[in-house]
Amino acid sequence: MVLEGKTALVTGAARGIGQGIALRYAAEGAKVVCCDRNPCQDTLEQIKAQGGEAAEIRADLSKWEDVQKAVGFTTEKYGRLDILVNNAGLTTRCPIDEETMEHWEFVTGVTLRGTWMMCKAAVPVMKKQESGRIINICSIAGVRAFADQSIYCAAKGGVANLTRELAVELAPFGIHVNAINPSIVDTPLFDDQGNPLVGDFLKELTAAVPCHKISQPKDIAGPAVFLAGPDSEYVYGVLLNVDGGWCAK
Ligand SMILES: NC(=O)c1ccc[n+]([C@@H]2O[C@H](COP(=O)([O-])OP(=O)(O)OC[C@H]3O[C@@H](n4cnc5c(N)ncnc54)[C@H](O)[C@@H]3O)[C@@H](O)[C@H]2O)c1
């Protein structure tokens, strides 16, 4: 129960990695605000079934008003905001000459601008508390090239350097900013790209990961507990690769 007494706001908590982090944070004793543009009922039910405390706020995190609403809801409900996990993100998968301006807005609007806006809204609360943890769920696509994902790579590259910049800017205020770079996680993200994680695509990705396994949301949740808890007291500005060895190649 290393997060006992803490309040966490997890974005994109309706499913996938965000859901995995929300469940684990609640199991570690945190009060968890699950934020998503889709209902988080499944996440909330699982947290309540395991005896945890959670609440839900619906928000489109590409919109500044919704971002402010999510942070305001958290502080009104629980009085604090100790841990912010910027996890909501999405991608398209096509060559640059087929990408559109709408794709650019769609992907960067939440993945990069949404992450920056969440930080902007949370920082005044954390500065007042003189403490806080911000954990950006970035990607190895923020530090490596992935063909046919130009917008996603640009957005995640932005999140990677935003993490470093904010770590330096906010460390004097007792606020830690770090990121996790997953490689391939078994979530519905790939379905939405029209590339479900099955068949030859799954075989190809599994073979590309040095440990020859794709990861599960719980594999990201453990490191997210570390970055939110007392064992990372001296950790600032780290991009923690949780990638089965991908970036070591
Ligand atoms: N799955 C992977 O292999 C993988 C690898 C590296 C990084 N990531 C990153 O991890 C994060 C989570 O990915 P996932 O695989 O769990 O994806 P997912 O699609 O399963 O979950 C993403 C969640 O974010 C929510 N969301 C999307 N846009 C939103 C918006 N505008 N406002 C509010 N909520 C919004 C969705 O409703 C969804 O519940 C993303 O930032 C993704 O880029 C995923």
List its salient traits:
45% helix; binds nicotinamide-adenine-dinucleotide; 16% strand; Rossmann fold; 249 residues
What do these coordinates show?
The chain has 249 residues and is α/β, with parallel strands linked by helices. It has one domain: Rossmann fold (3-Layer(aba) Sandwich). Helix content is 45%, strand content 16%. The chain contains 9 helices and 7 strands. The chain has helices at residues 16-27, 41-49, 64-78, 101-111, 113-129, 150-170, 189-192, 199-208, 217-228; strands spanning 7-11, 31-36, 53-58, 83-86, 132-137, 175-182, 239-242. α1 (16-27) crosses α9 (217-228) and α3 runs parallel beside α5 (113-129). The model has no long low-confidence stretch (mean pLDDT 97). It binds nicotinamide-adenine-dinucleotide (NAD). The site of nicotinamide-adenine-dinucleotide has 27 residues, from α1 and α7.
Produce the secondary structure layout.
Elements: E1 7-11, H1 16-27, E2 31-36, H2 41-49, E3 53-58, H3 64-78, E4 83-86, H4 101-111, H5 113-129, E5 132-137, H6 150-170, E6 175-182, H7 189-192, H8 199-208, H9 217-228, E7 239-242
Parallel strand pairs: 1-2, 1-4, 2-3, 4-5, 5-6, 6-7
Helix pairs in contact: 1-9, 3-5, 4-6
The structure holds nicotinamide-adenine-dinucleotide.
The site of nicotinamide-adenine-dinucleotide has 27 residues, from α1 and α7.
